[in-house]
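Try it yourself: sequence plus pyridoxal-5'-phosphate, in.
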Amino acid sequence: MKGRFGLGIYQDLGLRRVVNASGRVTVLGVSAFSDRVAEAAKEGGQSYVVVEDLMRRAGELISRHTGAEDSCPTSCASAAIALTVAALVTRGRWSDMMRLPDSSGLPNEVVLQKGHSINYGAPMATMIRLGGGVPVEAGQANEVRPEDIEEAICGRTVALLYVKSHHCVQKGMVAPEVMRDIAHAHGLPFVMDCAAEEDLRKYIALGADAVMYSGAKAIEATTSGFVTGRADIVANVRRQYAGIGRAMKVGKEQIVGLLAALDQYDARDHEAEAAANEAKVDWLVGAVNGIHGLRAEKVRDEAGRAIYRCRVSLREGAPAGITMQGVNERLRAGDPIVWARTEFLNLGKIDFDPRPMLDGDKELVAERLREIMEA
Ligand SMILES: *Cc1c(COP(=O)(O)O)cnc(C)c1O
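Structure, out:
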């Protein structure tokens, strides 16, 4: 995409180009949508509609992709979490809705596993509180037992929340099926944050009462999100737009962009995309292993998704005084900026995610690493 002066719209603003080797991350604007999504958003933004009717129709259409009873578009997955909690706390009572986020005196506790109380760029607990909920963390950071969850449930509990994410502690946690059964045995809704998940049907099929997705991550839509699930819960989510949801307004152009991206998502050849991404990783691993002082390996996503990344660390013979922290700083200081994943930087490792890398990016990354190591 060219901006006014032929570079790019962000370069016209005086900003450096960025090579996204990190993934669908908010700090880099999440994803880049297709022309078809852009055209839908343009047309949607240039005309009017009764927004409530659009919301309901979009809910029906989203549900065709998820298999749920109903769905509701939101401005992002974080808003979907906050509004779902708000729906569960207020249960459709108008006066309670009108005083959120103050929920004092109401049942308002949301039980989640301690290893799921993550920071994905903002704290999970904050989104629960934003909806008037009180997060209750069950168990220990690296070990949660079913009885920890059972015993965290009390008369103030409104739901059990499971977070499906690579950010979560993976070992020692209770499986979603077990948490679902505990919730249902207590007559409580079981809700799941699946913001970055690729499978839109799996968790509804598993029996979750509401599932929250991000529109801009796997689906590559306009900035958006949605809640999909039980009709009564989704109806209460929709009502929140007359209350705290107003601060999380979702635009008509965002909603039609999401719908276009969902149609495209189903038509995409996900296996071919995964194979092409894996081939990019293989190329990068080979190229980086040829650079003096660096080691590269192919690693699989921690949440078990079919996503491979190139993990780079120092090898014996690296120039004295060089650290991966230093390498990463130099990557980010350049023009264009090379932005890798740094979740394991404290262990001396950086990861390159092939999915958002454009044509020519992997060659540029290898070249920059070589320059840094040979400087
Ligand atoms: C990205 C993410 C979110 C937030 O999604 P947004 O659409 O950016 O609000 C929530 N939960 C998890 C696990 C995430 O990865």
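One thing you can check immediately is this: The longest strand covers residues 157-163.
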